[in-house]
Design brief:
The chain has ten helices and no strands. By secondary structure, the protein is mainly alpha-helical. The chain has one domain. Helix 7 runs antiparallel to helix 10 and helix 8 packs antiparallel against helix 10. The longest helix has about 40 residues. The relative contact order is 0.15.
Length: about 230
Amino acid sequence: MGILLQAADTATQLAATAAPAIEKISLWELLAKGGWLMYPLYLLLIVALFIFFERLIAIRKASKIDSSFMPIIRDNILSGNIKGAETLARNTNNPVSRMISKGLKRIGKPIDVIEKSMESVGRQEMYNMERNLNILSLIAGIAPMFGFLGTIIGMVQLFYEINSSGNFELSTIAGGIYVKMITSATGLIIGLIAFIFHNYLSTQVDKTANKMEIAATEFIDILQEPTK
């Protein structure tokens, strides 16, 4: 009985010794295995990050509107101090002030003419805020496609090598497949990041556009109030 137990322990030790150690790999080493198509994906990520932060700063700057701006404009208009209102609007740098400035220059003309001129400025300001957001949308669409292309190219190369060498070992095939899937995973992650960036910035633009609409409506209402 003791001999059998000793033999079992020896067999267990031999099996543990023979079992291959699991190879650990860092994230950067894993990404490096993705091949040359990882570089276009890196470039798309850099472009997405640059556009996001550049637009975020610009949109936040555009959305900062002093709460006292419209009350001061109203007081100046009702008191007949149009020049003072124009000076305030001209010296304030945001989409609302530029739209109001255009409306002030049209005072004396029919209301519909004033509204159209302000709408024209509003559309231009919206275009300025939305500039380059379409690139984020494009990256969200093409990054996964780039990743999938890298996987397809890698799989073709893998099966060509297997066919040429005749090596059909499961470890070789599995190892090759997981390496080729790296580009697909990276492309999907970059596409998701760009999609989130685009939707977040679009929401901020919509909030600023709502402020512009409120200010324009308030301005038209002021023009229809009796002057002091």
